[in-house]
Amino acid sequence: MMWKEKYKIGVEHIDKQHEELFRRVSEFTKVIRSEEDWDARVDKVKETMIFMKDYVIDHFNEEEIYQEQINYPDIETHREAHAKFREGINNYVKIFEEEGFTEEKIQEFGGKLMAWLIMHVGNMDQKIGEYVRSKGGKV
Amino acid sequence: MKAEYVNSFYKATKEVFQLLVDIEPKRGELKLVEELKNSKDANVKLGVKGDLKGAILFSFPKDMTLELVKIMSGMEMDKIDKFTTSALGEVANIIGGNAFIFLSEHNLSCDITPPEIFIGEYNPSPWEKEKALLLPLTTPIGEFDITINLKENN
User: Where do the domains of chain A lie, and which CATH numbers do they carry?
Assistant: First the structure.
């Protein structure tokens, strides 16, 4: 999963976190798509799930604090999008707790996570950058 | 069925494809079809409820499905499996969600049901044997269809 320069919003600490999220999701995708035996890969999958859950929560919180600081007008819409993303991850965390880390469910989660992340960073988050630029980069 | 329904889906598809895979789909000639049916290899259905009711069917050939997910993931894809269909289902879901945001500007409020994925030809349920509009779309990685069956919920 490729990080693209066009995803940058021009706010350094947020851009760094986005790049890290892409790197982690990309690694996760490589692990779940590899031909190795599932049992040999499942620990890496569990580790990534724990990271994703914590990192996504921290990142979204930081992004929301930043939006408050700059009086971002669409903060409520963005909060709702974060809530939906978190809910999507938490639903799968629950499934994995209840049903175990089955390959089928992990593949399903991996496909969705990839689409969610590209859409969120490539679309929703770009609007923060546009707002900052509209204020001459000084907010 | 009103033109704005089709236009909203085209607009949403164009935006989502440009964002996810840097491709701009071109629309072909709209066709009236007898029912919600498609013979392409991977089909995603979204149910619609609210001010409009019905279903939307996204139909992709196998090679295009694999190429689409390859571009998104940066990894070779050689088979239609849970990962590729899940990604495809989510792409359709995002397009559907965005299309209904555009339709809300026409004072239409709708919800979509989670995407259902069908590998191989999609045959309609008895209640889907109604005329629908088929929008063919062309891209450099293949041709796909969106079939729209919506009516106002009075």
Answer: 10-134 (1.20.120.50)
**A77 inside 8 A of chain B by CB:** no
Domains and CATH numbers, chain B: 3-152 (3.40.1550.10)
Tens digit of pLDDT at every position of chain A (139 positions): 778 898 999 999 999 999 999 999 998 999 999 888 888 889 888 888 888 888 888 999 999 999 999 999 999 999 999 999 999 989 998 999 999 999 999 999 999 999 999 999 998 899 999 999 998 876 5
Please report, for residues A22, B85, B119, the alpha-carbon distance to residue B79 in angstroms, rounded to integers and kept in the order given: 24, 10, 12
- Cβ distance B94 to A115 less than 8 Å, yes or no, reads yes
Tokens of A57: 């929560």
What is the pTM assigned to this prediction?
A: 0.91
DSSP code string of A61-128: HHHHHHHHHTT-TTHHHHHHHHHHHHHHHHHHHHHHHHH---HHHHHHHHHHHHHHHHHIIIIITHHH
Residue from B69, B73, B81, B117 to probe the interface with A (highest A Cβ count within 10 Å): B73
Give the whole-angstrom CA distance, residue A47 versus residue A63.
24
User: Which chain B residues touch A108 with a CB distance below 8 Å?
Assistant: 82-83, 86
